[in-house]
Design a protein that fits this description.
Chain lengths: 512, 184
């Protein structure tokens, strides 16, 4: 990045104009001890909880423990330059991050500073990172869908705008893949996405950003990166920074989607801070307020009504609702969902998507366990066509699971049972989907319609995926108009005949 | 440091209450000040906690010196008990912190603020009068100025009352300008 000399003098002029040289009255304290990013400070009698405090060398901290004779603070940044006896000043401000459309397409750290080498953000607004979630009066029930582009999800665990749906599973079960595909699928939906990477490897974050760029999804996405090498204070705060950036879009009547990848690591970072601050450890050594840590974060995901948007945007936006959909991710250890943090987040969210290693290794991807994955509010937001067709899927899979275990002991089965088993197997096959291949509503409807109505019953089980691909290609090639019509108005009643015609036509080609 | 303050607080409060009840704040103040200086004295430090010095003897010794030979004064019994209590609890080393907190409590009771003023040049009589008036209005307390001179401030002054600091020095302003220019 090069700047012309004239720009430099302009910059200096601006800085000088903004500089206030009046004597400042401040509260000061003295650093007593520094331990792993935590400072104990003597003095600072008037500091407030959560206030930003200033260390020498333009380094900032956050006052988190106010005790009788000392203040415990986390340092936001490199704490190695802080020495015992350093003077600390209060600032009277609480932590703010830049917000606005300027952040789209950028990668920022936990405090909103750009780290992608694309120059300054030039964001026009900032917003405090801790804010109270919209109240009950301003909320609206979830009624519009977020299309993830996955058949299995959109049919069985639909997500609505403003909903909080947990993605939970062991390591290497495709949690991040699910989230990334959801972002990629928002290219045309107008939903702005925020991906908060907490405690991940820098290489994984770089991979995600590259994949998003490859699929043209960075233009509507903000990546907040607090990698494993950043101090725990930033890993803990990055989730709040991300939700603040998302709230900006909700407040101006737009729809946003935020992914926290993952909240287990955020809780671990918070645990480290809490233990170093000498707060009493509780279950699994987490502090007492780890539930509140996640509940206050996830409560900020909401669908708000027109009145709220009008107030929040100071009257600029009228007659529009806003939403912030939350997709927290939790990593379990050996499938243990009864651990402390998983149970907490399960109870906070409006449903969960369970991903299982067994399914993943059996080649079922997304490795979703359809039996225990639920969406408590998404049904109201599902498109009519998928809702009607998806009911059959759930039923077939439920019956299949029941029979599959039972039938292992039976040698010969009656016709009805066998039919159900075979249907179940085919539905399971159809629910498989490759990564980076999101489907439109019409494509999903076509696949589901075909399997529900027995078009695949005659196809060999191993060839179902192949059959489905061929069917989709056929439909795209010769029934484009019908698919577009479904996408424009996704109701089953109107388009059932069209779906039937596509399937019949395909069958009559005799390919399968 | 912070922990010392916490442990010293109940002792300072007790001494203050006891002195207040007997209206002997000044006497207790000098007593605690001397005792604090004593326990920091390099010759006295090795005696504290020394197994060869019996605690009663140490207390007698400290009392004698801290009361400047007036160990028969009416408040001396209480002062002896106070020192004895500290010795029993092995907290004689807290005396400097106790004395400091005692002075703070006394200043609060007398509605006096001890304000440190660090200036680049020595304050003129008129300057300190003006400063005192301004500070008295701001703090709502009678102000005792403790002026100091520090040439490295270049110009202006820094006013400090406990944790409250007003930095009006040229050095501080230059530092702030530096921070503003570097965009922090």
């Amino acid at each position: 990045m090069s700047i012309k000399p004239s720009e430099i003098s302009d910059l200096i002029k601006q800085r000088i104009e903004r500089f206030q040289s009046a004597a400042e009255a401040r509260n000061i304290g003295i650093v007593v001890s520094v331990t792993d990013g935590i400072c104990r400070i003597h003095g600072l009698a008037d500091v407030r909880y959560g206030e930003m405090i200033e260390f020498p060398g333009s380094l900032f901290g956050l006052a988190l423990n106010l005790e009788q004779d000392s203040v415990g603070a986390v340092v936001l940044g490199d704490y190695k330059s802080i020495k015992e006896g350093d003077t600390v000043k209060t600032t009277g401000r609480i932590l703010e991050v830049p917000v606005g459309p300027e952040l789209l397409g950028r990668v920022v750290d936990g405090l909103g500073a750009p780290i992608d080498g694309k120059g300054p953000l030039n964001a026009k607004a900032t917003s405090p990172i801790e804010r109270v979630a919209p109240g009950v009066i301003y909320r609206k029930s979830v009624s519009q869908p977020v299309q993830t582009g996955y058949k299995a999800l959109d049919a069985m665990v639909p997500i609505g705008r403003g909903q909080r749906e947990l993605i939970i599973g062991d390591r290497q079960t495709g949690k991040t893949a699910l989230a990334i595909d959801t972002i990629i699928n928002q290219k045309s939906s107008g939903i702005k996405c925020i991906y908060v990477a907490i405690g991940q490897k820098q290489s994984s974050i770089a991979n995600v950003v590259r994949k998003l760029e490859e699929h043209g999804a960075m233009t509507h996405t903000i990546v907040v990166a607090a990698s494993a090498s950043t101090p725990p204070s930033l890993q803990y705060l990055s989730a709040y920074a991300g939700v603040t950036m998302g709230e900006y879009f909700m407040d101006i009547g737009e729809d946003a989607l935020i992914i926290y990848d993952d909240l287990s690591k955020q809780a671990v970072a918070y645990r480290q801070i809490a233990l170093l601050l000498r707060r009493p450890p509780g279950r699994e050594a987490f502090p007492g307020d780890v539930f509140y840590l996640h509940s206050r974060l996830l409560e900020r995901s909401a669908r708000v009504n027109e009145e709220y948007v009008e107030q929040a945007s100071k009257g600029r936006v009228k007659g529009r609702t806003g939403s912030l959909t939350g997709l927290p991710i939790i990593e379990t250890q050996a499938g243990d969902v009864t651990a402390f943090v998983p149970t907490n987040v399960i109870s906070i969210t409006d449903g969960q998507i369970f991903l299982e290693s067994d399914l993943f290794n059996a080649g079922i991807r997304p490795a979703m366990n359809a039996g225990i994955s639920v969406s408590r509010v998404g049904g109201a937001a599902q498109t009519d066509i998928i809702k009607r067709l998806g009911g059959g899927i759930r039923l077939s899979l439920a019956q299949y699971r029941e029979l599959a275990a039972f039938s292992q002991f039976a040698s010969d089965l009656d016709d009805a049972t066998r039919r159900q088993l075979e249907r179940g197997q085919r539905v399971t096959e159809v629910m498989k989907q490759r990564q980076y291949a999101p489907m439109s509503v019409a494509e999903m409807a076509l696949s589901i319609y075909a399997v529900n109505n027995g078009y695949m019953d005659k196809v060999d089980r191993k060839k179902v995926v192949e059959f489905e691909t061929a069917l989709q290609n056929f439909a795209r090639a010769s029934h484009r108009a019908a698919l577009d019509a479904i996408n424009a108005e996704p109701t089953l009643k109107k388009h059932e005949a069209a779906l039937k015609k596509i399937c019949d036509d395909f069958q009559s080609t005799g390919a399968y | 440091m912070a922990e010392l303050a916490t442990t010293a607080r109940p002792y300072a409060r007790a001494a203050f209450a006891s002195a207040g009840a007997a209206s002997q704040l000044v006497e207790w103040g000098t007593f605690l000040g001397r005792a604090a200086a004593l326990v920091q004295d390099p010759q006295v430090v090795p005696l504290i906690g020394n197994p060869r010095v019996p605690p009663p003897a140490l207390v007698d010794f400290l009392l004698e010196l801290a009361t400047a030979g007036k160990a028969s004064a009416p408040q001396a019994t209480q002062q002896r008990n106070f020192l004895q209590l500290l010795a029993d609890n092995r907290r004689l080393r807290l005396l400097p912190e106790i004395a400091a907190q005692f002075e703070m409590l006394r200043a609060e009771a007398e509605r006096v603020a001890d304000v440190d003023v660090v200036s680049a040049q020595e304050l003129t009589g008129e300057q300190s009068k003006k400063l005192q008036a301004v500070l008295e209005r701001r703090l709502g307390l009678a102000v005792r100025l403790h002026p100091q001179v520090d040439k490295s401030l270049v110009g202006g002054a820094i006013v400090r009352y406990r944790d409250f600091v007003v930095d009006g020095s040229l050095r501080g302003r230059i530092e702030r300008l530096g921070a503003a220019m570097s965009g922090a």
